Amino acid sequence: MKIRSIIFYTALMMSANLASANDKQKLLITGSSTVSPVIQEIARVYEQQQSKVLVDVQTGGSSKGVMDTRSGLSDIGMVSRALKQSEQDLKSYTLGFDGISLITHSSNSLSNLTKKQIIDIYTGKINNWKMLGGPEEEIVVISKAAGRSTLELFLAYLGIKHSKIKADIVIGDNEQGIKAVESNKFAIGYVSIGAAKYRAENGAPIKLISADGHIPSLENVRKRTYPMTRELNLVTSGNETDSANKFIKFSLHQSSLIEAFNFVPAE
Asked: From which domain of life does this come (predicted)?
């Protein structure tokens, strides 16, 4: 009899919790893996203040954020770049600014690469660290998958087409790129400055490399003097719900959280 009572009570509680979850307003936010970590933290704080709202944050790249928002699959898209001319049907809200930095293992003695050297590395013309004054070891080239805004901005900076890239490893999000460099002393990649700084400050054996003498720092991103600086945006279709509007308005005023993730707030 006691066991039956426990089973009944457990089932009743599960049903009540499910009903409570179903009663909540749900917001689906998809897109950029660069923007995702800070939005997840903002969402956590927001849910604490708005108990009737449930925010689901999913990654997949900026292109996915645009496509999902256009199709109505997501309420809000995350895009780590300015909207393209072909995307002006969407409405964007700038959270802050970030940059893209080359990264190597912390044991690498290099601190700067010229644009030509970067192009030659990523097109296969320079394939050994000895050609750059380093050890006689092959360079392991890490690049981003198609549809990632980090790749698009990197290619735009170099002035080359994606088809010219000769990568040994193709990754999706920043964390994958950082882990790939952590585990290979002879690798080179490019990721968000914010993500790289955060992981380096927390013990990851990586270092940020200057591009053509431009230091990948938050100060240079703030001054817009770093060449691979980009916007971090939330985007909507223009027909967003009141719930989505409230979350966006809340997010735009979270400067301290945005700074905590090594991004430069737009405010």
From this structure: Bacteria
Per the listing, tokens 């193709």 go with 170
Structure tokens at 3: 């066991």
CA 149 to chain centre: 9
Architecture field, domain 25-98+231-265: 3-Layer(aba) Sandwich (3.40)
- Selected from 3.40.640.10, 1.10.260.40, 3.40.190.10, 1.10.3470.10, the CATH number assigned to the domain covering 99-223 reads 3.40.190.10
pLDDT at residue 16 above 50? no
The one-character DSSP state at 132 is G
Quick one: pLDDT at residue 18? 44
Residue 41, helix vs strand vs coil: helix
Answer for the pair 95, 252: CB distance below 8 angstroms, yes or no: yes
Average pLDDT, the chain: 91
pTM over 0.90: no
User: What is residue 134's DSSP assignment?
Assistant: S
Q: Do domains 25-98+231-265 and 99-223 have the same CATH topology?
A: yes
φ and ψ of 145, to 5 deg:
-75, 155
